């Protein structure tokens, strides 16, 4: 299907076709979304189409993470809670829920079993007794260490708090509301068969596929390009009733300055900030990336263990923006509170100049003059007359407006550097010496 120009559709299909041939993919499907709709999809190899199921691999984790964030929003847990408060009996009871989501809990990457992606999985009741303290590879919070095992724990957390399996909770709370009817734990025809491609010959070897049991929340799901396009639209901001927009934005915040948030991967490409996840299982590779600023996304699914070269989904997204760029939104004037207008303009933190500007919906932007570097933040009004920092250095801090100064958590801003008669910590001296 296509809702883009013939030239754009041809360019996207050619990129997909070149990848299928050069990477020797048995089949591959891809799609591009914009404003919540699939505007292009294509397929190469075999009888693949937009409804053909492929294994998602670790994209599953991003969906499990949404379930955990829903529990948090409902007040059933806190991200700072130790895991053992909700699921007792594991040696990782002090690792926090948030650390498991962000792969900073220090757990081993894999469970203490055979290669779980190629062998039948154990149920929770058999896997969890095998867990021992030696699987705590790093001090919780010390480093980012990707852990499939951590998401097995989160799947059980969802089951305990919901009273149903993680999969049933996912169907009811995420998949059905988003219209993802071809996403499930086991393949349903039509579905692709996973293959390994011989490195030195154009021949195939079928890869095994099993129910992963307790490890399923780390990578079990199968889905189609049509359904994954719905997920791309969700990541781009089409939340519906599934998740609050502010919670999705929280998931997209990098943890400890890294390239992972709460259950989602983060990346930059061509000046765009992308959010998504990749996935791999024996016989399958997948990737989905969304650009929340442009409300667009791209994805691919393929039945090859080795998969395509890096960058296919990001390339498709970049091609959409190159061939059919959005027009900038029209500038429109707004009505401003005169009291807020009086606050705008030049302020100083010590000798350093800052500007205070009005944003739409009564927001404030306090930023260093002359560039993005420094301690800049956006603020929104609170009922008590203070302003809450949304991002940057002052995220979560309160700005208070004084008679002749601004106070941001003890940082005093004045109209002139160290202005006399204002409560500058340490006092304001005489610039004349």
UniProtKB/TrEMBL annotation:
The keyword Transferase does not apply. One of its GO terms (molecular function) is hydrolase activity. Pfam families: Beta-lactamase, DUF7586. Transmembrane segments: none annotated. Residues 15-315 form the Beta-lactamase-related domain. InterPro entries: AmpC-like, Beta-lactam-related, Beta-lactam/transpept-like, DUF7586. Keywords: Hydrolase. Residues 337-415 form the DUF7586 domain. This is Serine hydrolase domain-containing protein. It comes from Nonomuraea longicatena. The lineage of its organism: Bacteria, Bacillati, Actinomycetota, Actinomycetes, Streptosporangiales.
């Amino acid at each position: 299907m296509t809702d883009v120009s013939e030239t754009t559709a041809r360019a996207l299909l050619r990129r997909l076709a070149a990848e299928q041939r050069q990477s020797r993919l048995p089949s591959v499907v891809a799609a591009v979304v914009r404003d919540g709709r699939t505007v292009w999809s294509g397929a190469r190899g075999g009888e693949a189409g937009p409804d053909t199921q492929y294994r998602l691999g670790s994209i599953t984790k991003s969906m499990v993470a949404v379930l955990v964030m829903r529990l948090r929003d409902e007040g059933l847990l806190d991200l700072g809670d130790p895991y053992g408060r909700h699921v007792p009996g594991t040696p990782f009871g002090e690792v926090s829920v948030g650390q498991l989501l962000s792969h900073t809990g220090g757990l081993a990457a894999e469970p203490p079993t055979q290669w779980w992606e190629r062998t039948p999985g154990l149920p929770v009741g058999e896997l969890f007794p095998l867990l021992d303290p030696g699987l705590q590879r790093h001090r919780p919070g010390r480093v980012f260490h990707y852990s499939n095992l951590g998401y097995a724990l989160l799947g059980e957390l969802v089951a305990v708090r919901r009273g149903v399996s993680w999969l049933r909770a996912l169907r009811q709370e995420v998949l059905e509301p988003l219209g993802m009817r071809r996403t499930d734990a086991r393949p349903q025809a039509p579905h692709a068969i996973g293959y390994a491609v011989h490195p030195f010959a154009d021949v195939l070897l079928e890869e095994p596929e099993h129910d992963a049991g307790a490890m399923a929340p780390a990578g079990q799901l199968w889905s189609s390009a049509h359904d994954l396009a719905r997920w791309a639209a969700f990541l781009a901001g089409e939340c519906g009733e599934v998740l609050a927009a502010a919670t999705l934005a929280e998931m997209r915040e990098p943890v400890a300055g890294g390239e992972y948030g709460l259950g989602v991967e983060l990346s930059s490409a061509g000046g765009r900030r992308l959010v998504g996840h990749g996935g791999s299982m024996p016989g399958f590779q997948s990737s989905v990336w969304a650009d929340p600023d442009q409300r667009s996304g791209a994805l691919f699914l393929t039945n090859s263990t080795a998969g395509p070269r890096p960058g296919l989904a990001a390339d498709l997204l970049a091609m959409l923006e190159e061939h059919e760029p959005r027009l900038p939104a029209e500038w429109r004037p707004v009505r401003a509170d005169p009291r807020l207008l009086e606050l705008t303009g030049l302020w100083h933190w010590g000798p350093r100049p800052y500007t205070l500007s009005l944003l739409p919906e009564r927001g404030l932007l306090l930023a260093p003059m002359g560039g993005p570097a420094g301690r800049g933040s956006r603020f929104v009004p609170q009922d008590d007359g203070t302003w809450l920092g949304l991002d940057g250095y002052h995220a979560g801090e309160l700005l208070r407006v004084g008679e002749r100064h601004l106070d941001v958590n003890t940082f005093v801003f004045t109209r002139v550097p160290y202005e006399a008669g204002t409560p500058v910590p340490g006092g304001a001296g005489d610039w004349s010496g």
